[in-house]
Amino acid sequence: MAEPMISDFKKIGIGLTGFGMGFTFLGVLLLFDKSLLAMGNVMFLSGVGLIIGAQRAVRFFFTRKRYKGSAFFFGGMTLVLVGWPIIGICLEAWGFVNLFGDFFPVALTFMQNMPVIGNILAMPAVQQVVDRLMGLNTKDAPV
């Protein structure tokens, strides 16, 4: 059975997006280091552009229903570059949730089927948070 081919641009884009998220995480972990946060932002955006293409990325960020999320996301990036990394990351996080919030249930469903991560997500305390993020009604679920 033939595996679906992923282009080299998409492979590089996935790597850049992952490294961008990693650099952003390290920047937050290292007391909001401005240069790590800026590198993470650039890598994340270029990775998204390579994964879905430049035109589709522009359409994704600048459609009418995503203006608010994009404004917060790019405004936060600007604040990080200007020198206010704490406020900038908070705005970026809010914009990220507004932009990519529709993808969380899909990503969580995928992660639940992974070997180690699935076991962690199946733990009772974590399962309640996962169910809320996925929009499942936790009141009717057996305990």
Automatic annotation (TrEMBL):
<comment type="similarity">
    <text>Belongs to the GOT1 family.</text>
</comment>
<protein>
    <submittedName>
        <fullName>Vesicle transport protein GOT1</fullName>
    </submittedName>
</protein>
<dbReference type="GO" id="GO:0006888">
    <property type="term" value="P:endoplasmic reticulum to Golgi vesicle-mediated transport"/>
</dbReference>
<dbReference type="InterPro" id="IPR007305">
    <property type="entry name" value="Vesicle_transpt_Got1/SFT2"/>
</dbReference>
<feature type="transmembrane region" description="Helical">
    <location>
        <begin position="70"/>
        <end position="97"/>
    </location>
</feature>
<keyword id="KW-0333">Golgi apparatus</keyword>
<dbReference type="GO" id="GO:0042147">
    <property type="term" value="P:retrograde transport, endosome to Golgi"/>
</dbReference>
<dbReference type="GO" id="GO:0000139">
    <property type="term" value="C:Golgi membrane"/>
</dbReference>
<dbReference type="Pfam" id="PF04178">
    <property type="entry name" value="Got1"/>
</dbReference>
<dbReference type="GO" id="GO:0005829">
    <property type="term" value="C:cytosol"/>
</dbReference>
<keyword id="KW-0472">Membrane</keyword>
<feature type="transmembrane region" description="Helical">
    <location>
        <begin position="103"/>
        <end position="126"/>
    </location>
</feature>
<keyword id="KW-1133">Transmembrane helix</keyword>
<dbReference type="InterPro" id="IPR045176">
    <property type="entry name" value="Got1"/>
</dbReference>
<feature type="transmembrane region" description="Helical">
    <location>
        <begin position="38"/>
        <end position="58"/>
    </location>
</feature>
<feature type="transmembrane region" description="Helical">
    <location>
        <begin position="12"/>
        <end position="32"/>
    </location>
</feature>
<keyword id="KW-0812">Transmembrane</keyword>
